[in-house]
Design goal:
160 residues, alpha/beta, binds coenzyme A, 6 helices
Amino acid sequence: MKIAVYPGSFDPVTNGHLDIIKRAASLCEELYVAVLENPVKNSLFTIEERVSMLQEALKEFDNVKVEPFRGLLIDYVKQTGAQLIIRGLRAVSDYEYELQMALANKKLDPEIETVFLVANTEYSFLSSSLVKELAAFKGELNELVPSCVKHKLQEKMKER
Ligand code: COA
């Protein structure tokens, strides 16, 4: 049994991410969901909000831990003692970017493997940007994000 890290920006988490997380959690002993704190990226949600929405959505999963991270992913992975990085593949268009990242991480630490899980077809069109755009124009979000995220998105859009 292995320790794994599933990294991302999660601005915000969607049902597509949750599907990957739940499947990954059943394949490993411990799963760290690592939320990138990137001061350069203009996120809608703060790092605290992104972590808190994930914690709320994943509270029933005993072997899943949500943490923020900064800097290089590989350094965070080593800190957790994980051997695996999990990434989801939604379509062929994800492949080039994911391959580059996996190869770069492999170069930085050959002991750590990247494992790809194929996204469920139900969520293959989904992204955080799409969800934010739908929220901005009051589109239906019910099947795309968990209810805690839906409420947070609606609050955020009212503030703007
Ligand atoms: N379901 C729904 N959406 C998904 C998804 C899935 N299964 N998988 C990816 N996405 C979407 C995300 O919502 C996001 O959409 P958006 O662009 O509309 O916001 C997009 O795909 C990419 O998101 P994410 O998986 O969060 O990747 P990222 O590019 O934001 O972050 C990191 C990737 C955090 C893993 C990477 O940037 C990183 O490791 N950074 C640290 C610095 C580092 O080590 N760099 C060197 C790496 S070689």
